[in-house]
Structures are given as C-alpha cells and as structure tokens.
Predict the structure.
Amino acid sequence: MSTAIRLHRHDVALGASGLLGGLLLWLLGLHTQGGRPFAAPWVTLVPLTVMAAMELLRRRAPRTALAVGALALIADQLTRGSLATVLMFTDIVYAAVLYGTPAAARRIPVATLLITVAVTIGFLGWFRRPEALLIGVVAGLLSFLPAIAGVSVRNHRTAADAARLAARQTARLAEVDRTQAVVAERARMARELHDMVANHLSAVAIHSTAALSIDDPETSRNALKVIRENSVEGLAEMRRLIGLLREGGEDDAPAAAPTLASLDALVAQANANGASSGLVCTVEDARGPGAGALPTPVELAAYRIVQESLTNALKHAAPGPVVVRLGLAGELLTVEVTSVLGRRPGPTAPGSGAGLVGMRERAALLGGTFHAGAEPSGDEGGSGGGSGSGSGGGGGDRIWRVRAELPVTERTVRE
C-alpha cells in the first residue's frame, strides 16, 4: 500500500522556482546582509533548501511548514542571507492562514502583529534611533502583511463557497417546488378528468350492456337514448377540460366551474341514468333559502363529491333511494350521499377506487374531513322522504354513506 503524499503542482512550482531563484542569487553573489557568524557562502543554501522544501507542504501541512519555515528564517539571519528565503517565508505565512484551520487563521495574524510590535520596540530600545522603526516595518511586511492577505482571501473564498451552497440549495428547493407543483397539477387534472367523465362513461357502459343483453326494442331504444345523452355531455365536459389546459385566447376561454346551484340538473341526469336500475335520487338542501354562494373551490369540491357519489351509486347501489343532503352550520358545509347497499340486478360497471381517493383528496385540500363506508340503515327510510318509500329496502338493509365536511372560510382553502 503506497503511503506517498501527493503534492499540489502549484506548491511544487513555488518550491522549485524559489530554490532556483535562490541558487541564481547565490551564484551572482547577491546577499541580504554581511558580517554574520556563519559567513561561508555555502551555508546560505541550507535555510534556502529547507524553506523550498517547506513550500511543498504549504497546502498539505501548513502548520508544520510555518514552524519549520520560521526556524529556517531565523537560521538565514545568521548567514549572509538570501532574498529568496525571505520571500518564500512570506508565502508560507500566507498559506498557513489560507489553508490552515479556522483557529490558526484567527491566531496567526494576531501573533504576527504582536511579533512585529515586539521587534519594533526591541530594536528601538536597542539602537535608540528612529531608523530602528524600519526594522519593525520590514518585520511587518514579512509576517503581518502576508497573514492579513491570507485572511482576506480566505474570507472571500468562504463567502464564495457559502454563496455557491446557497445557490445550490435554492436550485434544489426550486426543483422540489416545481416537482410538487407538477404532481399537484397532475393530481388535480386526474380528479377533474375522473369526476367529469366517469359519470357519463359508467352510464354508457351500464346501458350498452343492457341493450346487448336484453332482446327488447324498447329497452334498446331507451338505452341508446341514455347512451347518446351521456356521450354528448361527456364530450362537452372533455371540451371544458381541454379549454382549461389550453393556452388560448378569449375564444378558447373555458366555461365556469360547476357549483351547487347545478345539483338539480345533476340529480335529474342521475335519475335518468339510474331509472332502469331502480334508483331514485333526491336532494335535501338544509342550508336554507337565503344561503349565498360559497367560495369557488368549496362549491366545486362539493359538486364533484356529489357527482362521484351518484356515479358510484349508479355502478354499485341496490335499487332504492339515493339521497343527497346539504347542510351549513357556521363555517362548515356538510355534504352527505346515502344509497342502499346490496346486490343489484342487471349490468354493473367496474370500479377502480380512484373515485374515493379523489373525494378524500378534495376534502383534504380544503382542510376538511371525508368518510365513506357501510352502515346500518337505522331510520334511513324515514329520513329519505317519500322519494324512496316504494323502491325497496326495508329497515334491515344496510346503506353506503359518503360524508364530507368542508370549511367554507377563504383562509382554509388550499386549492
């Protein structure tokens, strides 16, 4: 297993150029000082070589590079000195702040400032001449200034990294919002398509089966009449849905969404579709004669819940009353549809369960509740009024009840 440390190419370039530059200055006999204890020319190459080696570690081990580099700089002051050694040390200080730990980035500038002040005061007290201040300036240029430069570059890099991270997070959030919006719109379109078309197609399926299975001209004529009416109305609903999806002009503006004011027409159509199955649909509106219009999403959801419940009754309910009840108590609209549960004679239409899911979603989007299930009939026969008294279903029958409670205040509407 290899344990070799991979060096950055920039560090290698800096170390090599510093070493070659120092060698060139040494060959030319250019030194920074004279009269030092180790005056032999070749001794200058020792701290130069050590400092060049530390350049290789400036990024990988900045703390080690700074500590050894500081010792090499002190050793260089005991020789005839090399400008390349000094310049490489300034780069090592800069790199120690830039690539070191956050704690090192905070401490090194403070330490270099204190060293600069101490050197200035020390030499000023030693020489007792104003020119000693220049030594402090040089010390600041060699240590404190590179440290400050490293802090500035590090802060800029940190800010740039934070900005890139924020941009990525914003992009992810935007993508999540877009995906959620697409999913919500697809679910809304699926509910609208199912609720608008399923009622008509269920009637078409049931009556076409009856026309094919019963060899009676009158029955076939009545079935074809119902099939034609539902086909025409289904096409009209499809055109309305296409109008909602099309980005057209005024000529392509979609029709208004259905409201509870259209329930009488919906129930009349359900009676026509379910007459051959023994279904009798009625509406009991307990909201009162002065009930005003509700928010459009609430009216649409209530209408679709009633429509889907009548469709399910047409497909599955036994002969008997189908009662639609509306109630308004405070800020809560109650929609309830009951039908007789049991085996039904004649053709039926298959169900997928998507209707119940759609009704539950409509109620949840408005912050309401939804329940559907079988219950004992109780006094259902009496509550259904005279409309269902002769259509079968005694006190022992079970009923299928769909009940939704929808808040009518604008603040609860989510769709």
Observations:
- The two ends are 62 Å apart (CA to CA).
- The longest strand covers residues 320-329.
